[in-house]
Amino acid sequence: MIEPSGRSVRGLHHDVYVGFVMIVFCAVAFYVTTTFDSVPAMLSQNIPATFFPRLVLATITLLSVILIVSGLKRSAESLGSVPGSVFTTAAVITLAVFLVKPLGTLLTVGLLALTLTWLWGERQWSRIASLAIGLPAAIYLVFAIGLQVRFPRGVVMSLIGAGG
């Protein structure tokens, strides 16, 4: 709990609370994965629909436990206001979710990398372009080619006949 003065009421570092909230989120999201429809074996590519979401949730849970443990080792501190960049980042990521269907996964990831990198202060276009091109390329190589996972292509990519 945080008082209006910004001081912690219970004396725990704020990372402990954030870690617990993230674990609760992961538990709820894991439950949601139990409601996924089963995919026919012919279309599943030998990977159930729940595999990647649960892998991500397990990773987030592990990182949350580490956050809690490190927070327990630190003393409570007063929190400042949340920077506006947090809300801008959340808005951009939310918009990206809605862009996957029209643009496809890989194009959306590239645009997301470009936009967030610029919003966070990077101004060297060579670095921005490297990430915006390199990240989707790496994802494509690992997941589409290596693991044979199909990504939504999107309307734009289907029209131009690109992507996989």
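The record above closes out task 2.4. Task 2.5 opens with a second protein, given below.
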Amino acid sequence: MTGCKVSGCIVTHNNMRTIDKTLQTLLGETRGVDFKLYIVDNFSTDGTPELLRRKYGDDPRVEILEPHTNKGFGAGHNLVLPLLDSEFHAIINPDVIVRDDVLEKMAVYMRGNPDVGLLSPHIRFPDGRDQILGKRDPTLRYLVASRLRGHGEPSRLLREYAMLDEDLSVPRDIENATGCFMLIRTDLFRELGGFDPHYFMYFEDSDLTRTVRLTSRAVYYPDACIYHVWGRESKKNSKLRRIQIRSMLYYFRKWRR
């Protein structure tokens, strides 16, 4: 055990279908660090808060926050900023599965590399297939390539966006880390004020990575792996698609330079 203090936060909104498996694996597999998990429920109506209180309300590692409103993904994560006293802080989606002590691996790497501000693990589907996720700054052409991808081989642009032509078997500096699971230095996260709350959902992870890179490194670390259900809801839900487009436009306005 490293003795390292690591906090984590999961923001839930109607995640009854996945959250229990996420918590079972995360709490069951995290053994090598002193771990505190905050769960912020963004006004779920599907029974998620009741399940959390019933199954995890007495676990000393877990603190459940219910703001009784939904101001978005980033704003939900920002609620825990005043509570953190850890060395590293994990942003965790409510639909991930952990199969080994990934937080210890990531914390050990960051302790050994003090110039790294943010660390992103290898991300796979639950069946073991790699998820093709952007590791370069998002651009319109990259996003179109990602949206249009079918079930075949990724296009040249998508390969470029996901850095598939680079050697990803070793740690590499990246421009963009996915918010489904990332580890950031707590002092840095607090100094930045957390996520930009102007994003209700989508692109806040790209924005945070880009902000981190102004003062430190963002790194992809393949020796740590998590499994992500990744429903790609914005492809199916017109309301989420509109939210995604608004976030994209705000991101491009903010970072045009």
